[in-house]
Write a structure and sequence with these properties.
The chain is mainly alpha-helical. It contains seven helices and no strands. The radius of gyration is 19 Å and the shape is elongated.
């Protein structure tokens, strides 16, 4: 029996059924996990902060478009959201039981649906990485700045001030 590789984000999309990507930092498949450390708390220029904000707005737009596409894929599936979620959960918890609990036609539809969702996710991830690099950041640098902004209320206020006016 063929098993579909399911990412954590895909599981969240279907399992929670809210069709939103998890708010996780950008990553590419070939990146190693980042070590757990505090990013440097150096001064962030207005130019860096503005570029970060522009990239962040674009990322949110890309995520929104991807969420709509994923919603359409799920709506077009012959399986209900609940059944997709049930099969996904079964695959994660007890893959051996799939043959007993899931009909062959359901499994085929599940694999097609999940494949489409993963394709949308990969395309969106590539677009987000491209946007980050177009704004002059490496992915790791962008993620570090994101963490720094979340931890520094003054930096967060500066960023919000730039885009609220």
């Amino acid at each position: 029996m063929k098993h579909v590789k399911i990412t954590v984000r895909t599981m969240i999309v279907i399992g929670v059924a809210v069709l939103l990507f998890a708010a996780l930092p950008l990553a590419s498949d070939d990146m190693l996990p980042m070590p757990d450390f505090n990013p440097p708390q150096g001064a962030v220029s207005d130019q860096e902060l503005q570029a970060f904000g522009i990239a962040l707005i674009s990322i949110q737009e890309i995520q929104s478009e991807a969420n709509e596409e994923i919603g359409e894929v799920i709506e077009q599936s012959e399986l209900s959201e609940d059944r997709l979620s049930e099969i996904l959960q079964l695959q994660q918890v007890d893959p051996a039981a799939i043959g007993e609990s899931v009909a062959d036609d359901e499994l085929r539809e599940f694999e097609v649906t999940i494949g489409s969702i993963e394709d949308i996710h990969e395309t969106a991830q590539d677009e987000m990485i491209e946007e980050v690099t177009q704004q002059g950041f490496e992915v790791e640098e962008f993620n570090q700045l994101s963490q720094q902004i979340q931890e520094d209320p003054e930096l967060m206020n500066r960023l919000q001030g730039m885009f609220m006016n």
